[in-house]
Specification:
It is built from 16 helices and four strands. The chain has a two-stranded antiparallel ribbon. A hairpin with an 8-residue loop joins strand 3 and strand 4. Helix 8 packs across helix 9, helix 9 packs parallel to helix 11 and helix 10 packs antiparallel against helix 11. The radius of gyration is 34 Å and the shape is elongated.
């Protein structure tokens, strides 16, 4: 009935009488009663009328849904961006139906929005060339690269296999469980404290330096006892203790800091796009480090791979001392001045409200 009504309305035909259709199909199978219009009012009978009505209903709903969801190229915003203002007005009238007031005002608002978006886009592109944007980006990408070079993520992913290859007297599963619990404690307690209370440069240098020493000790042990069987090795707890020390000290700062500092270094206008780009590069580097961890182990052997990871840890130590900026307890002005050559004199004025260290920088010209 409804489908035929669409067809009848579109073709200006009389509505006809409503009656109940047959309750059995030609094959004798029973089906639910259907209300249809009098077939005398619809040329071609019931089935062609319902097909025509279904097509009209489908096209109408499909077009309205596409417009509302922005899938149709004739959406008003797209038409305004293309400069086709009259078509945008017709599209708005179609969408609003009976309420077609203030169409011109709506189009003007879309024009102004388009201009503001273009201005903002040009401003963002120019901001990307500022030293307060590209310098922290280069620093963070280098930090991610050096971090993945320490082998931390590979050790976490292949923990059981790695401890099994060490050929010690300890059960790899037991050591892995102990390592997981210890990492949880270190991350929740010491990692949070170090990341929020201590100097980022000092903590990074200390943790990465200790990580490099522990990895170097494990590499030296494996180099000395690499030709001996597990039963002939002495003090097999030494490589286990070195690897555990490396993982735990990396958990404090080296592993979380590149991800935490990303939101602290970039200015607000470009923070979204630059944080997304930095996180993407960091995730790709983590994937590559895990993907090729076992290949590095097979290529250089355990002593050579551990020596490589130790060298990367010492590079992170130097990076923390000479390159990494300290953002702990610093406001936005102080952070940005680290990346600019000119360092204007700044007078700190307290903001309205309570709170220790809640200050606002005022540039003195």
């Amino acid at each position: 009935m409804i489908l035929e009504g669409f067809w009848s309305r579109d073709n200006r035909l009389p509505s006809g009488d409503v009656r109940q259709g047959p309750t059995k199909s030609p094959g004798g199978l029973a089906h639910a009663p259907v209300l249809v219009r009098d077939t005398n009012c619809v040329p071609g009978g019931r089935l062609p009328a319902m097909e025509r009505g279904l097509g009209i209903l489908h096209r109408s709903l499909h077009h309205r849904i596409d417009l509302l969801c922005g899938l149709d190229p004739r959406v008003p915003c797209w038409l305004v961006n293309e400069g086709r203002y009259e078509e945008a007005k017709r599209s708005l009238r179609y969408l609003r139906g009976s309420d077609s007031t203030n169409i011109d005002a709506h189009v003007e608002v879309l024009k102004m929005s388009r201009k503001s978006v273009l201005v903002e886009r040009n401003a963002v592109l120019s901001d990307l060339l500022e030293p307060t944007v590209w310098k922290p980006f280069v620093i963070l990408v280098l930090f991610h690269f050096l971090q993945t070079g320490t082998g931390f993520y590979g050790l976490m992913y292949y923990t059981v296999d790695f401890f099994d290859d060490l050929r010690t007297s300890f059960d790899p599963l037991t050591v892995t469980i102990f390592l997981s619990v210890a990492r949880l404690v270190m991350s929740c307690v010491f990692g949070t404290y170090c990341a929020t209370r201590l100097n980022r440069k000092v903590v990074t240098a200390l943790s990465s330096g200790l990580s490099g020493v522990s990895l170097l000790g494990a590499a030296a042990y494996e180099h000395v006892f690499t030709s001996l069987d597990a039963d002939e090795r002495l003090h097999t707890w030494i490589p286990i203790g070195c690897i555990l020390t490396n993982v735990l000290v990396c958990t404090i700062t080296v592993q979380p800091l590149p991800w935490l500092m990303t939101r602290e270094l970039f200015p607000l206008p470009v923070r979204g796009i630059m944080c997304g780009l930095t996180y993407f590069i960091g995730t790709v580097l983590v994937f590559l480090s895990v993907k090729y961890f076992m290949s590095v182990m097979g290529l250089f052997g355990i002593p050579g791979a551990l020596s490589f990871f130790s060298a990367s840890s010492f590079l992170v130590c130097l990076f923390g001392i000479f390159v990494l900026p300290d953002t702990n307890n610093k406001n936005r002005s102080e952070i940005e001045r680290n990346f600019t050559k000119a360092k204007p004199r700044v007078e700190e004025q307290p903001l309205i409200g309570k709170g220790i260290g809640n200050v606002m920088p005022t540039l003195l010209v």
